[in-house]
Amino acid sequence: MFHDRLDAARQLAAALAHHRGSHPLVLAIPRGAVPMAAHLAQTLGGELDIVLVRKLPAPYSNEFAVGSVDESGWVYVAPHANLAGADADYLARVRREQLAEIARRRAAYTPGRAAASARGRTVIVVDDGLATGATMLAALHAVRQRAPAHLVCAVPVGSRESVALVRPAADELVCLLTPADFQAVGQFYAHFPQVEDAEVVRALRAAADPAAPGGAGTPP
């Protein structure tokens, strides 16, 4: 169990301490992972940014992923998608919807700013947990296209199935807990509030301005 996302981030930072000093690029999957990634970037002496991906929800459950899409439009379709009622027409529709949400978030979170370069760097992709692993798989695919030297997947908790799914897509995988009784990410946090857009924007602005409160110049 983790008390909250900050507690999970502190434990992840300890597990990733061997990357301190390499100025890693720490990429959060918004929204929940952004406060965690901000702490990791500070602790490891890295740079904070985001990687925008979205799950493709099942027809009858917004929480259950039948796939995912990255910012370029690349789509991962889970083997169980058809069994969940997600045919080709449905997947095409939700892909369009999620790409529109990705575009909205890009405009809101990093207006007028290019994505940080990943080429030749250690890149750590962070989420607050892996349920199906679909969004992390899309995130790792997106980052791999940007030619990192070493690609790390870092999460506090994940189902055993999701960890097995994403492991081949990363050069290094750090997952602190892989419980047999996994049902949902939130069950492993005592305090797991929703992260809002305003918190994401504040974290990214603070990281970009070392003099700002909570910025990169503030001790973790």
TrEMBL record:
Keywords of the record: Glycosyltransferase, Transferase
Coiled coil: none
Molecular function in Gene Ontology: glycosyltransferase activity
Keyword Glycosyltransferase attached: yes
Cross-referenced Gene3D superfamilies: 3.40.50.2020, PRTase-like
InterPro entries: PRTase-like, PRTase_dom
Origin: domain of life: Bacteria
Domain Phosphoribosyltransferase: 5-175
Pfam families: Pribosyltran (PF00156)
Protein name per Swiss-Prot or TrEMBL: Phosphoribosyltransferase
Taxonomic classification: Bacteria, Pseudomonadati, Pseudomonadota, Betaproteobacteria, Burkholderiales
